[in-house]
Amino acid sequence: MTMASRRPVALLGAVLLLIGSAGCELRQAMYDQEKYEPLEASAFFADGMSFRPQVDGTVAQGQLMLDEHFYQGKVQGQLAATLPVAVDRQLLEHGRARFNIFCAPCHDRTGSGNGMVVQRGLKQPPSFHQERLREVPVGHFYDVMTNGFGVMYSYASRIPVADRWAIVAYIKVLQLSQNLEFDQLPAEDQRQLQ
Length: 194
Ligand code: HEC
What we know:
Layout: H1 3-31, H2 68-72, E1 74-75, E2 78-79, H3 89-102, H4 104-107, H5 116-119, H6 131-135, H7 138-147, H8 161-178, H9 187-193
Antiparallel strand pairs: 1-2
């Protein structure tokens, strides 16, 4: 490279450096501007706080949980008798995976209530195959997971709403697996048993 072509490059570098430092000063000015820090006191508002209270009825984005069936497991205040989600194989597989992770340690993989934690001394939960729990509305299972039941704590903070419904659907599968009428079996299975 000759000297002639090197000089413009140096000049360009100096110009870029200048622009860069101007940007830096601008950033600093915005950083130092007049503003309230979080929870700082304020002489401007009568209550002395810079933080303004929420307007009554404010709902955070994504938290308007109006769907009573989906979010509370209830329909007009009563435990829902139906699932608020469509059931397909994918949902059931997902429910099985979640059940085996979150519920089986106590309820065991079949739902009869002999999980490892119970074998080590925790109160034994009732079997999901007893008549009372076969007949309760599905909303009850959702409610138990959401709000806890007796010594069983709530799973609301650990299992998202949609996953709770997948688990409910899978519990119905477990119940059916132990209590199926002969004529509810697929024709193929009926033939094999006859
Ligand atoms: C740490 C152990 C443990 C885990 C994990 C657990 N449970 Fe339970 N569950 C219990 C116990 C203990 C009871 C009985 C509570 C009582 O009667 O005081 C119970 C009761 C229940 C009942 C019966 C309520 C009734 O009407 O009698 C249901 C339904 C249930 N659990 C569902 C679940 C589901 C679904 C999961 C997984 C998301 C789960 N549990 C995870 C321990 C557990």
